[in-house]
């Protein structure tokens, strides 16, 4: 919006582009922090899944710990969705958000199998077959590394020349 009687500043478009690039870099750095926290939570998630897959009754402390881990992944997922904004569905930002959602859902599913409302042989068989986060855990670690490389590349190209 132009204020009547005022001349536009020189280089305002260039400054807007710089601000936009800086905002993008801040969002990517924040998303990297979210991904780093999620990767750090993976061992706890694996422990919960392993505890849920043990034969016999699962201790109640597994449910409490699993609930905390699942809620942490849900929180991280929400942050990732906010940071991804209007990113394309094929973007790395969107993929990180999807992977965090998978992690939260996996923990939730394991807890539901370990503490069902009604027991059945089929559910028990599925519970005992649980074997961790699987390939999406490695994919999240790869996405974290890709984000770090992307940020480093952006910082290198945006750095002022001396």
Structure characterization notes:
The protein is mainly alpha-helical. It has one domain (26-154). 75% of the residues lie in helices and 0% in strands. It has five helices and no strands. It is elongated, with a radius of gyration of 22 Å.
Q: Helix tally?
A: 5
Count of individual domains: 1
List the uncertain runs.
none
The biggest beta sheet reads: none
Structural class: mainly alpha
Strand content: under 5%
Number of strand segments: 0
Give the SSE order as H and E letters: HHHHH
What radius of gyration results from the CA coordinates?
22 Å
Average pLDDT over all residues: 87
Shape: elongated
Helix content: over 70%
How far is the first residue's CA from the last residue's CA?
A: 35 Å
List the helices and strands and how they pair.
Layout: H1 12-52, H2 60-84, H3 92-114, H4 121-128, H5 135-158
Quickly list its features.
162 residues, 75% helix, mainly alpha, 5 helices
Concise overview:
This protein has 162 residues and is an all-alpha fold. Helix content is 75%, strand content 0%. The protein is built from five helices and no strands.
């Amino acid at each position: 919006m132009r204020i009547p009687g005022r001349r536009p500043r020189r280089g305002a478009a260039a400054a807007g582009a710089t601000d936009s690039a800086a905002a993008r870099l801040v969002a990517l750095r924040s998303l990297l922090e979210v991904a780093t926290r999620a990767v750090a939570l993976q061992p706890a998630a694996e422990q919960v899944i392993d505890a849920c897959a043990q034969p016999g009754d699962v201790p109640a402390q597994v449910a409490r710990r699993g609930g905390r881990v699942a809620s942490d992944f849900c929180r991280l997922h929400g942050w990732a969705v906010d940071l991804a904004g209007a990113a394309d569905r094929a973007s790395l930002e969107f993929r990180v958000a999807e992977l965090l959602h998978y992690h939260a859902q996996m923990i939730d599913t394991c807890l539901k199998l370990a503490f069902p409302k009604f027991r059945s042989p089929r559910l028990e068989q599925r519970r005992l077959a649980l074997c961790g986060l699987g390939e999406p855990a490695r994919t999240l670690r790869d996405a974290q590394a890709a984000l770090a490389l992307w940020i480093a590349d952006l910082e290198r190209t945006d750095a002022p020349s001396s």
